[in-house]
Amino acid sequence: HSRFYLGESVVSYQQKLSPWTIVRVLPDLQKITVARFRRRNEAEGHLIILNRMMPLAEFAIVFERRSDAVG
Length: 71
What we know:
The protein is an alpha+beta fold. Helices cover 27% and strands 41% of the residues. The strands form two sheets. Strands 4-3-5 form a three-stranded antiparallel β-sheet, covered by helices on one side. Strands 1-2 form a two-stranded antiparallel sheet.
């Protein structure tokens, strides 16, 4: 895997190519990344399925912009 170094964090090439992220929202403003997608419409389709499979869970689509700049 190619990796981009951003300060102390490491961002994989795959993460950089897939900025649309579905996260599961947890108590105390915590979140868990569930899946990543290149296009928003793909994330929206997956979100529909997740909501059907887990109707009591809370999910959100987030655009995670990654930068090549360091510092």
